[in-house]
Amino acid sequence: RRLDKKATGVIFAKDGKNEIVRVKREVILCAGAIGSPKLLMLSGIGPQEELARHSIDPVQVLPVGQALQDHIIFLGLVVTTTNDMIGLSNLNKSIEEYNKTRTGLLTIPGAFEALLFTSSKEDESAETEDYPDVELELASMFPNELIGRSPFIDPVIYEKYYKPMFGKAGFMNAVAMVQPKSRGTVHLTNTNPYERPQINPNMLYYTEDLERIVNGTLKVMKLFNTTAMKAIGAEVWNEKFPYCSQFDIWSRDYVTCFVQQTAFPGQHVCCTAPMGTHKDAVVDARLKVHGIEGLRVMDASVMPAIVSGNTYAAVLMIGAKGADMVLEDAKQTRY
């Protein structure tokens, strides 16, 4: 109800017709960090300008969709090895092992066998209190001919950068900026609830984010000069990325260019309806939407800031804690 700012139900489509379900207690929105802000704005809860742009009568003016965060991924550290530890022959053995016992390499989620969280700063002295802001993900896979089928790979990059790798042994490494300063947005495309919203990750908006992921990349590259890596003949792929060929390979300028050309969102979107009491908050400490009775948001959108690890575990915790709070509040309220 608009007059008393109370959520009383939901509208959904069934067999092409809109249906309304009324609630006695409250509506709990769990549509994710993209879907939840979209539905809030379609319901008149959002930034004044956004609602006015789409002629939506405002119910509650809040900064919905204005603080999107995501991890930033750079997948440019490809390492070749002389020891075919994870090449085609090993892959065939792994397939056979998985078919027989459901164990081995193919059971590793995302093929990431090792993770390292570290600081992008060179000086990691005992006095440094910063949280790790960079993650290294070592993946037991190597580019092959299948990459050429991707509609997202530039033909020039495929021919000059990836194609020379085919047939070699090695592994890939992702460097992730897990504590970015940059914030993106979610905007409505129109008032059609079936239309996808406009998403702007706004990655690397702050120079600081770019500098930190470059620092982190140059830092983790030192791992490939260790005794263990030398034992398997590990070498960072030294074929120049075609759109950064004007720079000395693996110089700071080269890595900066490489990151700018290829970095992508980590699909760990959050923070589009953040919790708090500050002016940028959308929900309170009990996940209730500020100024609206009977409406909670319970998903990754309520995070005030992104976590360094993958968001999956954090979202499970938000759901579990949120459910507890719903039950607690229900015991104290008569409906």
TrEMBL record:
SUPFAM superfamilies assigned: FAD-linked reductases, C-terminal domain (SSF54373), FAD/NAD(P)-binding domain (SSF51905)
Keyword Flavoprotein carried by entry: yes
Protein keywords: FAD, Flavoprotein
Cofactor(s) listed: FAD
UniProt cross-references to Pfam families, sorted A to Z: GMC_oxred_C, GMC_oxred_N
Gene Ontology MF: a single term: oxidoreductase activity, acting on CH-OH group of donors
Location of the Glucose-methanol-choline oxidoreductase N-terminal domain: 32-46
Highest taxon, organism lineage: Eukaryota
Family under the similarity heading: Belongs to the GMC oxidoreductase family.
Protein name: Glucose-methanol-choline oxidoreductase N-terminal domain-containing protein
Source organism per UniProt: Amblyomma cajennense
